[in-house]
Amino acid sequence: MKIATWNVNSIAARLPLVTQWVKDSRPDVLCLQEIKCVDAKFPTAAFTELGYEVVTFGQPTYNGVAILSLHPISDVEKGFINDAEDAQRRLLAVTVKDVRIIDVYIPNGSEVGSEKYAYKLNWLSQLHDYFANHCDPNQKLVIGGDYNIAPADADVHDPIAWYGQILCSQPERDALQRLADWGLHDLFRRHHPAERQFSWWDYRGGGFPRNHGLRIDHLWATASLAELSKDCWIDKAPRKLERPSDHAPVIAEFQLT
DNA sequence: ATGGCATTGCAACAATGA
Q1: N or C: lower Cβ tally within 10 Å for chain A?
Q2: pLDDT, tens digit, for every residue of A215-252?
Q3: Contact, A21 vs A14, CB < 8 A?
């Protein structure tokens, strides 16, 4: 069973590329972020034609998450428990084959010290509480998404240039560590302890050809599910195509019936 | 210090991203 995550930076702009990748890769589950459209405008039919069930939690212009699954989806939860109606749509949880799957688009944070940075740290705190109060570290659970945090310097092309900057600052990394301490394991690192690979490259300044990237898209799993994981990898191929997302998909394979 | 590139909503360029 393959579970994948991909920040597509607008599903409308990326539809041909995403459907082609889904046809080629056939993930059992795909968590999408930044769909940037309302639910009614999500191209659901393009994926049901490929055999997928689709759940969306969209909003116009910014944010929005969706999950595609080849297997039946149950127990859909949208957003945090006490979110206001107009809250930013960044969290979507489903159950597929007894695995709790949580799709997140963690806020970017703009600049360290900014209002958006405070919002990001608060959102991360809410995410921790969501796990602490609402999930069981002993269940099979995976959280996939654009975390907008490079967990360590090994996840950064130029750690000196990025030192203390947004996506790399210590408070962000500490917030991520709190989630890890709840009981989550970085599947890419588990299978590739020393590899320097990235999942996002800036559109500007030839970021991709120069491999000026960060590893900010992740699949983290509870221990019982991590034990069943066979590998986790980043597929750079779609980043090389015409009109790509600035993020590459991340995929984990599990030994599940 | 700034822009660099891309997307959306709007119908020019501002907001946002990372």
Answers
A1: C
A2: 999 999 999 999 999 999 999 999 999 999 999 999 99
A3: no
In angstroms, what CA-CA distances link A252 with A46, A167, A218? Answer: 24, 23, 10
Per-residue pLDDT tens digits for A89-131: 999 999 999 999 999 999 999 999 999 999 999 999 999 999 9
Return d(Cα A240, Cα A62) in angstroms, integer.
24
With beta carbons less than 8 A apart as the criterion, state whether A124 and A105 touch: no
Strand B and A89 CB separated by under 7 Å: no
Element (H, E) at A30: strand A29-33
Using the 8-state DSSP alphabet, how is residue A153 labeled?
G
Residue A146 appears among annotated catalytic residues: yes
Contact residues for A142 (Cβ-Cβ < 8 A; gap 6+) = A3, A99, A100, A101, A102, A187, A219, A220, A221, A222, A225, A252
Q: What residue has its CA nearest to the C1' of B8?
A: A61
Q: Which residue has the tokens 């997140």?
A: A104
Phi-psi domain of A188 (left: phi exceeds 0; alpha: psi -120 through 50; beta: other): alpha
Q: Which nucleotides of B are covered by protein (CB under 7 A)?
A: 3-9, 16-18
Q: What pTM was computed for the model? A: 0.97
Q: What value, to the nearest 5°, has the Cα angle with vertex A200 and ends A196 and A206? A: 95
Nearest Cα residue to A219 out of A191, A251, A257, A248:
A251
